[in-house]
Amino acid sequence: MTALRIYVPGDAAAVACGADEVAAAVTATAAKRGLEIEIIRNGSRGMHWLEPMLEVVTGNGRIAYGPVELGDVASVLDAMVAGGGDHKLRVGVPEDHPFMKRQTRLTFARCGVVDPRSLEDYKAHDGYKGLAKALANPAGIVEEVTQSGLRGRGGAGFPTGIKWKTVADTKADQKYIVCNADEGDSGTFADRMIMEGDPFVLIEGMTIAGIAVGATKGFVYIRSEYPHAIAVMNDAVEIAQRARMLGKKVAGSDFEFYLEVREGAGAYVCGEETSLLESLEGKRGIVRAKPPLPAHKGLFGKPTVINNVLSLATVPIIMDQGAAFYKNFGVGRSRGTMPIQLAGNLNYGGLFETPFGITLGELVNDIGGGCFTGRPVKAVQVGGPLGAYFPPSLFDTPFDYEAFAKRDGLIGHAGIVVFDDTVDMAKQARFAMEFCAIESCGKCTPCRIGSTRGVETVDKIVAGIEPEKNLEVLADLCNTMKFGSLCALGGFTPYPVVSAMTHFRDDFKPAPHRQAAE
Amino acid sequence: MPRYEPWSAERTAQIIREHQGIEGPLLPILQALQEEFGYIDGAAEPLIAEELNISRAEVHGVITFYHDFRREPAGRHVLKLCRAEACQAAGGDALVAHAESRLGVALGNTTADGRVTVEPVYCLGLCSVSPSAMIDGRIVARLDAKKLDALLAEADR
């Protein structure tokens, strides 16, 4: 009899919900029964309310169960042995779940499906097909990526192909590919998921970038808050190196590409590209003034492509399927798909990859299922701590870079954090300023001083000290920070603050008034 | 929970040498030192500066810039509670208040008996299963006061 193949996610979200303990219990229970099993620690499919979600391989495909707690292990194992039989936690075929069926998974096609530490599994699921195409026509890579319409998924939305062309056109003895995996925005976890669930796609994307621009060395800078992602990426780099998919002759070609994983040290500002480069060089993560662009003078002063994890991880499918295929998805100037992260007070939180154009309301209500507290949604922060708060009256906003900008918001790294009606928006505005003060690198005055003055001003407003005058001061301060800061930390902190003031003005009334009004 | 070696100049010098060949060695050196000793002793600063041919001020500046680096040992257990928005939306503030009152110290401090250091962390990337925390390097999600108490009790065993 062949061993029963059981998938137990090793994704951090699943592990944080007890997946390691469940995996150990499955092993122990099977051993006690003399049952031969093989456990594969896959990534997460992204239906996080079902984590830990276990899957068993049956004659009818993989059948999932979740959320599995320790007490459920014995009975779930019974159902698995019965060939994916009934159980109160039975989810069925994961791909058939409505949450999955509504998605278009391009970047996340393999996440949760494959064994992240198996290069064979990666290749069996279309892995390294993009590299093969890239090697067949290295001179055409930059044009293909440009034509796909791919824009930087880190938040800025700058066209990836144009960035690559700048580096390709710059002459130098050494160039670098740097992957920004300093995913510090609250409400975002797509980078972490792809690194933990499908690390080879990032390695492949970086390798293609290296070939395209003539860079022989790459760094993945991962934040220290992601120990699982760091472990998987390190293992994957080693595996790829042993298989000669990295190194002196990539996949038997004449191209050389080496990759190294580096760990951050808990500074949010290092998600800003120039600050990240400083950090990689071993310095304080102080933001650099631009120009020069990193594409001209980046890491160690050399031309550098610095891209977000998702941008790089999307390159292989663009190379494999072609620019036209990718570009076909999306709306306006937002082409392709976006892995959207549904977080906070939601019934169905997780990873939802979809073409641009879906509305915010569909995401929050139809897909996310509203607040798990059962209360009405009051505000939704889109794009991390530097993103605007949207009220339900703006839920018709389509998920698109330009549409969000038009409504004084941003999609950023596509994290959506949902709050119910108990949230105090003055408090959230204060937190935005406080966070900026904690994380400011200190180089420019509007960010360094403005954030602290911002906290004080919100406090005055809420305390009823000349509230009208101080609201004006706060608006003016936001204006100064927005236009006077060197980078997005100080420059975008006004988004949550101003949106809170605009859409939730009542929350800024002095506390006694608010109590009286209730 | 991790057990650390007492600080030693010899071991420090050895760790610095092990990282000499790589590009941008300072952060990896500091991380390795903290991994070994649990903190970065002030006496390590001139040793690193000398070996990397940079000023002591530069080394000190880097250590103090990053939230991760400790200049003195932490308590026996380190509890990091996420304070970012997705956790706030799911009851994170109440959880922090509970932890502070139970431990008798505010975030960023160590209990008087040296048992627990409790710190804020801004996002562990577990925003769909919030509120979350990290205790002695182990991540935990869907927390509430009861679960947190159990974790703290468990850490002590």
Explain what this protein looks like in three dimensions.
Chain A is of the alpha/beta class. In chain A, 42% of the residues lie in helices and 15% in strands. Chain A has a 5-stranded mixed β-sheet with strand order 2-1-3-4-5, covered by helices on one side. In chain A, strands 13-12-16-14-15 form a 5-stranded mixed β-sheet. A 4-stranded parallel β-sheet of chain A has the order 8-7-6-9, with helices on both faces. Chain A has 4 domains: 4-101, Glutaredoxin (3-Layer(aba) Sandwich), CATH 3.40.30; 119-327, NADH-ubiquinone oxidoreductase 51kDa subunit (Rossmann fold), CATH 3.40.50.11540; 330-420, Ubiquitin-like (UB roll); 425-517, NADH-ubiquinone oxidoreductase 51kDa subunit, iron-sulphur binding domain (de novo design (two linked rop proteins)). In chain A, strand 7, helix 11 (227-242) and strand 8 form a beta-alpha-beta unit. Chain B is 43% helix and 13% strand. Chain B has 7 helices and 5 strands. By secondary structure, chain B is α+β, with helices and mostly antiparallel strands. Chain B has helices at residues 9-18, 26-37, 44-52, 56-65, 85-88, 92-103, 145-155; strands spanning 77-82, 109-110, 116-121, 133-135, 138-140. In chain B, helix 1 (9-18) runs parallel beside helix 3 (44-52) and helix 3 (44-52) packs across helix 4 (56-65). The interface between A and B is large, with 63 and 42 residues.
